[in-house]
Design brief:
The complex is a heterodimer. Chain A is globular. By secondary structure, chain A is mainly alpha-helical. In chain B, a hairpin with a 2-residue loop joins β10 and β11. Chain B is elongated. Chain B starts with a helix and ends with a helix. In chain B, 38% of the residues are buried. The chains are: A mainly alpha, B alpha+beta.
Chain lengths: 404, 244
């Protein structure tokens, strides 16, 4: 299903219409030809990981038209989607073992998220950023729920991959890095995992490399934040003028598909995925409260793992909001609201899906109802997916009558 | 699997009925459109009007969408949307809208199709003989004060082959991004879609049946997925005995 959706989006999205697709394609072409196809272009400042991964797709389609080459790159990106669903499944199975409903709903949310498929089946480094975000979520859950020798080094690799994939991932990667240091330190103190402490220098090096690689971006963003704070009255006025971007608004945009950020004319459809998310989060709160009330409060491990997953959401949202403020304050800034779309929240889709899915499990404590709940949630998400895909078809139905 | 035939049979019957009936249902059929790009916007107020000539493809033109935004909306003024034969002709259809009902912001800063898109749709009685006719639509605001100017998304230079933008009824080298719909049936919609999917596609990617096959495979997989989720726990219980 995931592969079919990916292929469908790769075929249905008109060539070079997804966000900055021409520029991402140019970067890959430049890399694949050693610069013969021109410079890296406007996306040349981006870290290299995604583009390097897509070079084989460019090579095998050389000699064909650009449209075919683009299709090859899009199809090469599709398996990354599958990996994200796998990470969601594995993380859910560790977070709430013995409750297949949670794994089913979590992976269903990731598998049927229209914008994830749309972006994932286009030429865009978001595809790798989203994958790395999913991997970080899985590894953080793994780190906090079980002791496996491979988890810390894999997390170090994932953090390094985050640095090499996209700047917007840095806050979440930094959180994972701090967590890794804390857990390794704790285990070292505990004495039972002393060997793991040897990974500390590696983790530190990875963090330092991240700072060096992205220091210019961090300096720029920090500068901007200070600027925004100094000019907060204008920022607030501007935010009011353009409509604020609370998390729920981002969530709506987050689910929007086709053309990247387009919204189906009947916006009421967005109530479907939002209901899944909101009821799931509500279920999480209700379930946690029930535990306190019944005298079985959640233990420290529960609180820490869910707290870290929860913290990832506003952290990623803050990155988006910062970009929004930047556009509000600087009318000449090229990032208009279109760039503030919820697609920048996609790297934290897996943490969101995990919390929502666990919430559904807590909301419906009777396991006998799991198949009803699971199939209903999937049906709701599928219905929305059909609507989202129809929005893409609607876009297709308008091929503009351009001048020759 | 004794339960499966009883589920698949009604599903297959529903699918066949849908295949036969759905094409005959009424639908808004995509007609003509100009490229949805933005660089600028045109002002609509007591001194300015923005218009666009275009050629409809089908009979029954009944809907045109443009990207509008008001920086300072007010209940006191309204805009008028006209369809005319020529920029200076008499309106064939007119739709009025209070500007407080328009989106707030700057139309030039929003990309059509974005979640913040400002598509505003004007629906009117179908024009029965619209196919192939050159028509003109305009957005006018004779009672709109300067401070409450409404902006219409425009693009310089003109990329629309079958017409061009007008400011105060004078042609300019620009186009207004717009979408037109005609009243028709689902079958018409599907034929437009099939025609457009083949645009710029060659070889194995061109034939519309490929896309139909993907659609059918998607629906089958979706149905199978929900059914598998529905039956998974029951199967587990059947295998393990009664639930505790």
């Amino acid at each position: 299903m995931v592969l079919l959706r990916g292929v469908a989006y790769a075929l249905l999205s008109p060539p070079f219409t997804t966000p900055d697709e021409r520029d991402h394609f140019q970067y890959i072409a430049s890399l694949a030809t050693g610069g013969e196809a021109g410079t890296r272009g406007r996306e040349g400042h981006q870290p290299v990981l995604y583009y390097a991964l897509m070079v084989p797709a460019y090579w095998i389609s050389m000699g064909h038209s650009e449209v075919v080459q683009l299709l090859a790159i899009r199809l090469f990106s599709v398996p990354l989607l599958l990996a994200q669903v796998g990470f969601a499944w594995l993380a859910a199975a560790r977070l709430v073992p013995g409750r297949p409903l949670v794994a089913l709903v979590a992976s269903g949310i990731v598998a049927l998220q229209p914008q994830l498929a749309y972006i994932g089946a286009s030429a865009n480094n978001d595809a790798v950023a989203n994958l790395v975000g999913a991997a970080l979520a899985f590894l953080v859950v793994s780190l906090l729920t079980e002791r496996r020798w491979w988890t810390p080094p894999a997390l170090v690799l994932a953090i390094a991959a985050a640095v090499l994939s996209k700047g917007q991932l840095l806050p979440v990667a930094a959180l994972a890095w701090l967590l890794l240091l804390a857990v390794l330190g704790w285990r070292a103190l505990d004495g039972s995992g002393r060997a793991l402490v040897y990974l500390l220098p590696v983790a530190l090096l990875a963090g330092l490399a991240a700072l060096v690689r992205e220091s210019s971006i961090l300096v720029e963003r920090t500068q901007f934040l200070l600027n925004a704070l100094q000019r907060w009255p204008q920022a607030l006025e501007g935010a009011e003028r353009y409509g604020s971007l609370p998390y729920w608004y981002q969530l709506v945009s987050f689910w929007s598909a086709s053309m990247g950020e387009s919204v189906h004319p009947a916006t009421v459809w967005y109530l479907l995925p939002l209901a899944v998310v909101v009821l799931g989060l509500l279920g999480f709160l209700v379930g946690a409260f029930r535990g306190w009330r019944d005298g079985t409060p959640p233990d420290a491990r529960f609180l820490l793992s869910r707290g870290v997953l929860l913290a990832m959401l506003p952290l990623q949202w803050a990155v988006v909001y910062m970009m929004f403020l930047q556009s509000v304050l600087d009318p000449h800034f090229s990032w208009t609201l279109q760039y503030m779309s919820g697609r920048y929240l996609l790297p934290t889709l897996v943490p969101l899906a995990l919390l929502v899915a666990e919430g559904w499990g807590l909301l419906v404590p009777r396991r006998a109802s799991d198949e009803v709940v699971g199939s209903t949630v999937l049906a709701v998400l599928l219905l929305f997916d059909v609507v989202a895909m129809s929005a893409l078809l609607e876009y297709h139905a308008f091929v503009p009558d351009r001048l020759p | 699997m004794p339960g499966w035939p009883s589920i698949w049979l009604p599903a297959a019957l529903i699918a066949v009925a849908a295949y036969l009936l759905v094409p005959a249902l009424p639908a808004e059929v995509p007609d003509t459109s100009s490229p949805p790009v933005n660089t600028s916007s045109g002002a609509v107020n007591m001194n300015c009007a923005v218009g666009q000539t275009f050629v409809a493809r089908f009979d029954g033109l009944d809907r045109i969408s443009v990207v509008l935004a008001a920086v300072r909306p007010t209940d006191e003024a309204e805009i008028a949307f006209h369809i005319k034969e020529t920029p200076t002709g008499e309106p064939l259809r007119t739709v009025r809208r209070v500007i407080s009902s328009l989106p707030i912001g700057d139309a030039g800063r929003f990309r059509p199709g974005a979640v913040e898109a400002r598509w505003t749709t004007f629906t009117f009685d179908p024009i029965p003989d619209s196919a192939g006719r050159k028509l003109y639509f305009s957005v006018e605001g004779r009672g709109v004060p300067w401070d409450n100017t409404v902006r219409v998304l425009m693009f310089y230079h003109n990329l629309y082959a079958l017409g061009q933008a007008h400011i105060n009824e004078t042609p300019v080298n620009a186009h207004v991004p717009f979408r037109a719909h005609s009243r028709g049936r689902v079958a018409d919609y599907m034929s437009v879609l099939a025609e457009n999917l083949a645009v710029k596609r060659t070889g194995a990617l061109a034939p519309a049946p490929l896309y139909a096959a993907i659609g059918v495979a998607y629906l089958l997989l979706a149905f199978g997925l929900v059914m598998a989720a529905w039956r998974s726990k029951s199967s587990a219980r059947e295998g393990q005995g009664a639930p505790k």
